[in-house]
Amino acid sequence: VAAREAARRGLRAYLVGGAVRDRLLGKKPKDLDIALEGDAEDFARAFARRLRARAVSSSEFGTAAVLLGGPKGLRRIDFSSTRGERYRHPAALPEVFPGTIGEDLARRDFSINAMAIALNGPEQGSLLDPFGGRADLEKGVVRLLHPASPSDDPTRAFRAVRIALRLGFRIDAVSRRWIGGSLSAGAFRRLSGDRLRREVLLLFQECEPASADLWLHRLELDRVVSDGFRTRRAPARGLRRVLACFPSGEPVCRDWASLEVWLESLPRDRREEAVRRLSISGERASEILSIENSLKALRAALPARVALSVAAFHCFRFSPEKIAAMGALLPAKLSSRLREARRRSRRIRLSIGGDDLKRHGIPAGPSLGRALAETWKARIDRRLSARRELAFALRRART
Ligand code: ATP
């Protein structure tokens, strides 16, 4: 429908990017990217009206998405105007200018992403493959398009790792040298913390965390985050365990949990440097920076001879991501006890509150709070049933 509508308006339309790559790999693409030699935003609005769908999210690059309720999982089509790009300095956001489909493919990251299928016109149905993407797909290679590519946009180095891991491909040796050259030339220093953090989190989100770390280390991309990775302790063991250590019944951001384990492998001062480089602030930053102290407290609280309530009390202070990270870093026995403490700390809710004690003549004050806390601990440690909470709390408040 889109191709016909474009032809009616005298516009050339091309299927581009991941959708072409996935089709050639015999996979069903999740979203479709269509590039038009013309005004994509205007076209997307008209196309959406025609299908009674919703057109959204035009951006500074002149792209627009149409959201479809549509057949078997296809939910969105992204329309963009074919364009070229210029980079004023390494890691700058590009200056964009209208261009041909050839220029549009030349601005892309890898040969396997720089292919297009013509959707209308005399070339309809044919593959445009100016950089040998199809051959690279067959060989299982991720290849950058030109030597300046990783300096123009250093996120491409991280994208290369991500797509190589996703597809089980290798990164071409020459491209690796180009990445090394851009690193030595300092191009990555200009990459903003927000963009760097986004790429690292995407890697840990999409890929097996220990493999992501291995690739980052091999390509020396981890040093973009902190030079301390040069002489780090290998975090592989923790990273291999982190996904299995999610506290049950709680949604966990696997990217952040993995990042916390990853950064733990750095010495403390280097970790601070990494947190600054990744522009992490607020609670996440304190969570990451306090991990050594938290682990120390848990090592003392988690052995079987210590009441579970001691660890459960600690657990309130941690996010599910930090619990997962610490679970991955602690020995297996302590780790499973940590998860049990977390589970019980969330499950046990007292059936009584301060008002119940006041009704029985206990005045507001520290002894009331202490009595409730002790009742909760006794419940966590299975020394008390829910039925006997009130009697227990009153006794504690009066002694
Ligand atoms: P997929 O390629 O499966 O869509 P993705 O979600 O990682 O994976 P997007 O970020 O949606 O890809 O990018 C879509 C397309 O835009 C890519 O296939 C690539 O051609 C191009 N692209 C994305 N980021 C860059 C970049 N930093 N430099 C050059 N081209 C890029």
Secondary structure tally, helices? 22
What number is the mean pLDDT?
A: 93
Distance between the termini: 79 Å
Percentage of residues in helical conformation: 40-55%
Q: Main beta sheet: strand number and arrangement?
A: 7 strands, mixed
Low-confidence stretches: none
Q: Could you tell me the strand content as a percent range?
A: 5-15%
User: In what order do the strands lie side by side in the largest sheet?
Assistant: 3-4-5-2-1-8-9
SS-based structural class? alpha+beta
Bound ligands, each once: adenosine-5'-triphosphate
Number of E strands: 11
Inertia-based shape: elongated
- Cα gyration radius (Å): 28 Å
What features would you describe in this structure?
This protein has about 400 residues and is α+β, with helices and mostly antiparallel strands. Helices cover about 50% and strands about 10% of the residues. It has a seven-stranded mixed β-sheet with strand order 3-4-5-2-1-8-9. A two-stranded antiparallel sheet has the order 6-7. A hairpin with an 8-residue loop joins β8 (about 115-120) and β9 (about 125-130). The longest helix is centred in the last third of the chain and has 16 residues, at about 330-345. The model has no long low-confidence stretch (mean pLDDT about 95). The protein binds adenosine-5'-triphosphate (ATP). Adenosine-5'-triphosphate binds near residues 113 and 159.
